[in-house]
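Late entry, evening session. Most of the bench is empty. Finally got around to the prediction I had been postponing all week. Sequence below, unchanged from the version circulated by S.P.
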Amino acid sequence: MVLDGVVNYLPNPLEARPMTAHREDETTTEVTPDDKGKPIGLVFKLWTDQFVGRLVFFRLYSGTLKKGDTMYNPRTRRSERISRLLFLKADERVDVDAIYSGDICAVVGAKDVVTGDTLCDEDLELRLEPPTFPEPVISMSIEPKTKIDQEKLSIGL
């Protein structure tokens, strides 16, 4: 039933509605999936892996991205070199040479990126809508009373 739901309710990238991208002059444009277009994608998560290092989870909305390519970050106005592209499947990492429109992968090599950054071709100078996160309903902090408790707490957490 879960897989039937995925097929019925989650569109493939070619059937999904276009993403809205913003220019600096406040105008908008639509980004549609096209493997032959200029690459543009969104960073939606950062993670540190003990074997690979810093992973940047990235969805490519248009174009093709190959390992070794350089992507432009409009927020920082700097280019980021993509040294590796990985598909993560559970605890397995699969190196790939290229990703295409609609693919979600982990990028290795991008240094100055944060969640919500757009990476694109330098000619585009577009920013995609960053993900929104709900406000927490409850927040709490835990502090150990002593140094000995600090180690126990870190093991417990």
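Two things to note before I forget:
Residues 147-156 form the longest helix (10 residues).
The chain has a mean pLDDT of 90.
Will write this up properly tomorrow.
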